[in-house]
TrEMBL record:
It comes from the Bacteria. The keyword Transcription does not apply. Pfam families: FGGY_C, FGGY_C_2, FGGY_N. The keyword S-adenosyl-L-methionine does not apply. Keywords: Kinase, Transferase. Residues 245-310, 380-437 form the Carbohydrate kinase FGGY C-terminal domain. CDD domains: ASKHA_NBD_FGGY_NaCK-like. It is an enzyme of class 2 (transferase). This is FGGY-family carbohydrate kinase. InterPro entries: ATPase_NBD, FGGY_C, FGGY_C_2, FGGY_N. SUPFAM superfamilies: Actin-like ATPase domain. GO terms for molecular function: kinase activity. Its EC number is 2.7.1.-.
């Protein structure tokens, strides 16, 4: 008897993964492969699209032949803000340009001179002005910087929809991809922004297809229900929305710490955009207010600095236990430990306070590391409060790397004494979210209620951040 499964491709910047989930959403098979970048026509690093395409198709062919599984459905979650372009012959052309690619100053000036100031456009599109990370601006750049290539483009698909296209042949657009800091979507009018229409870029996009719908496809004689694919940050939220009815904020931690509040529908303000707030799009179409903090990257950089200073391994911080006495000592004995951001460039979330600290004043690694975490959580408090404001949230869930850090979690609980704080863990949140999005198309069993493990962190008294 074959086990019915759904196959999910989860495509990160470095690691590419395929998971098979059974009807209880347990992972029953997985494969992961790291990819190295190639270079684009300007010599900048970029995704090797032909290798990725070949890997995805070859691997699905391989798992379709596994005798113990019956693959009933297929979906995709990938990093966002990246377009694949198709020619008239429906073949990929150009490059899958990297969202960190340097953006020409002259093209940026031309865009804003034509369509208005950064702040207004950012507010209307819920997208901080991030150059290449605004995928709409990347398409605009191709139009004026690489006109020969632009004239050959018949369709542009965000990466999740390109992977779906490989198996369905359908050119479609998904709300979670166009709604993620692309500068394409006017959130107040719920349509493509006026500049997109003025440039005729909307003609390059397929019809909008909801993320909880599927297409029926036959690939290598196998019938499949195929989803349109999702942006990874929106996908990661789905297991929480499926499991919890009461309003919550999810702090998804990795390189970035992204605070996502699906229960805050108040439009973004200019100040919030300045502090790196934006909106993602819920997989069923509603805006999700979010704020970003480069905390994981900062933690990585500063722990390397600590390791060099105290002559320890880079990952020594994993051995440091939470010590409330050290926190108390730091607050009482260091006049500059009150975590106000004097002397740091405004807005305060652009850089870490800790990088300005003299490591020689700390008695040992443990003390310095506690100060680093105090500084990071002080910033996290500001960042998360931006999306908590005026919403009925009573719980904060933290997943990813910092959820396993007891110092971060205890300080976060103390920073939000009126809110329940939980470390959450589950197997592969983005992949699981992509599977749950199309649950009712392939799975007759009820949604399981135990996909997320929670650990509660209670505040030990007064607020300490």
């Amino acid at each position: 008897m074959k086990t019915p499964v759904i196959a999910i491709f989860d495509i990160g910047k470095t690691n590419k993964k395929l998971f098979l989930f059974n009807e209880r959403y347990e992972i029953v098979w997985e494969r992961s492969e790291p990819f190295t970048d190639t270079v684009d026509d300007d010599g900048d690093p970029c995704e090797d699209l032909s290798r990725l395409t070949n890997w995805v198709q070859t691997l699905l062919r391989e798992v379709l032949e596994l005798p113990e599984f019956e693959i009933k459905a297929l979906n995709f979650s990938t990093y966002g803000a990246s377009f694949v372009h198709l020619s008239e012959e429906s073949r990929p052309i150009g490059y899958l340009y990297n969202y960190l690619k340097p953006y020409p100053a002259a093209i940026r000036k031309k865009f804003y001179d034509t369509y208005g100031d950064e702040t207004t456009l950012a507010m209307e599109t819920a997208s901080p002005a991030l150059d290449s990370l605004n995928s709409g601006l990347m398409l605009y750049r191709i139009k004026y910087d690489k006109p020969k290539l632009f004239r050959k483009i018949w369709y542009s698909l965000h990466l999740p929809q390109y992977l779906s296209y490989l198996f369905t042949g359908q050119v479609l657009t998904d709300v979670t991809s166009i709604g993620c800091h692309t500068m394409l979507w006017d959130f107040s009018k719920n349509q493509y922004h006026q500049w997109v229409v003025a440039e005729n870029l909307d003609k390059l996009f397929g019809p909008i297809f909801t993320s909880d719908s599927v297409l029926s496809a036959i690939w290598l004689d196998h019938p499949l229900k195929v989803g349109v694919g999702l942006h990874d940050s929106s996908a990661a939220l789905i297991p929480y929305l499926a499991s919890f009815q009461e309003p919550f904020v999810l702090i998804s931690t990795g390189t970035w710490s992204i605070s996502l509040n699906p229960f805050n529908t108040i439009p973004l303000t200019a100040e919030e955009l300045q502090y790196d707030c934006l909106c993602y799009m819920h997989y069923q179409g509603q805006p999700i207010k979010a704020s970003r903090l480069f905390a994981g990257y900062e933690h990585e950089q500063q722990t390397k600095r600590l390791a060099a200073h105290f002559q320890t391994p880079d990952n020594y911080y994993k051995q440091v236990a939470y010590d409330p006495d050290t926190i108390q000592y730091l607050r009482e004995s260091r006049p500059n430990s009150d975590n106000r951001f004097e002397g740091v460039k405004a807005p305060p979330l652009q850089e870490s306070l800790f990088r300005h600290r003299d490591l020689a004043v700390f008695r040992n690694y443990e003390e310095a590391y506690h100060q680093l975490m105090l500084d990071i959580v002080a910033q996290q408090l500001i960042s998360t409060n931006l999306v908590l404001d005026n919403s009925p949230v009573k719980r904060i869930f933290v997943d990813g790397g910092f959820s396993k850090n007891p110092i971060y979690m205890n300080l976060l609980a103390a920073a939000f004494p009126q809110t329940e704080v939980f470390a959450a863990s589950m197997a592969q949140a983005t992949a699981l979210g992509s599977a749950l999005a199309i649950h009712h198309h392939w799975n007759t069993k009820p949604l399981p209620g135990d996909t997320i493990e929670l650990k509660h962190y209670a505040t030990a008294g007064r607020q300490i951040v």
